[in-house]
Amino acid sequence: MMTPRVAAIHDMSGFGRCSLTVAIPILSAMGVQCCPLPTAFLSTHTGGFEGFTFLDMTDEMSKVADHWASLGLTFQAVYSGFLGSERQIGVVEDFIRRFGKDDALAIVDPVMGDHGHAYETYTPEMCEQMKELVCMADVVLPNVTECCILTDTPYREENWTRKELLNMAMMLRLMGAKSVVITGVREGSCYTNVVLEQGQYDAKFIRTRSSGGERPGTGDVFSSVVAGALLNGKSLPEAVSQAAGFVKECIKVSDEEQIPHANGVCFEKILGKLIKK
Ligand code: PXL
Predict the structure, then answer these.
(1) Among 106, 146, 70, 94, which Cα is nearest to 230's?
(2) C-beta of 110 in contact with ligand 1 (< 6 A)
(3) Neighbours of 276 (CB within 10 A)
(4) Whole-number pLDDT of residue 118
(5) What is the helix, strand, coil percentage profile of the chain, to 5?
(6) What whole-number distance in Å separates Cα of residue 235 and Cα of residue 2?
(7) Which of 63, 74, 171, 210 is exposed most, by the fewest CB atoms within 10 A?
(8) 47 Cβ closer than 6 Å to some ligand 1 atom
(9) Is residue 277 scored above 80 in pLDDT?
(10) Regarding beta strands 179-187 and 139-140, do their DSSP bridges make them parallel or antiparallel, or are they unpaired?
(11) pTM
């Protein structure tokens, strides 16, 4: 099989294990060529360190896209995550229009916030603009906070009914996303991922028992494994199950190793499990 190629549009945070520093190794381990298009360079992620630096790369991104187009490069998927400015969201939309043609997948992780709050760098205007990007997605992977922002639903930390979750997933599909995965919904001692596939009217609820505390970057680990699995020919529910299992193990080993919370998950310890036999 030809090596699938992905354009990965995320920030590069030097320390803290998120975005490109997890997407590149995970996709490579899964036999997928990852071509990074950084949205910003930060010294650390924004969730747990004071005084992080932030270099916005918006102006560079269109130049990179122009050069890639001039080389005639094609991608089997465009995979976006943390974005650095409102204007940049339009740049990503243009990129998908240009490179997401034919059967290339547009995988959009609408990274915006967690636990009912937007991340420090996400303005209300950016959150609004993200609704347009989501319309272009073949697969969109919001957590509950992001799902609420995108569907204008009041946020609750817990006790979502499956009907409410299905309704929110349906709303995202009505907006234009083809398949929807609502990630990391807390249900008692489990996390549930809600998978609403293109053309279906019922969702699959994939439950995984929690293996420890929450950590930054797990959403990026999850979406990167889903992207890799889809490009390896797995179905969306299979990809979600693999991602949920991998994140669970990452959290377990990080707790065992007593990795500080802000440092994310030490996925390096178990990365080998993703390597295709
Ligand atoms: O994991 C999401 C994420 C990605 N990139 C940056 C972040 C965060 C979450 O805090 O700060 C820079």
Answers:
(1) 106
(2) no
(3) 10
(4) 94
(5) 40, 20, 35
(6) 19
(7) 63
(8) yes
(9) no
(10) parallel
(11) 0.98
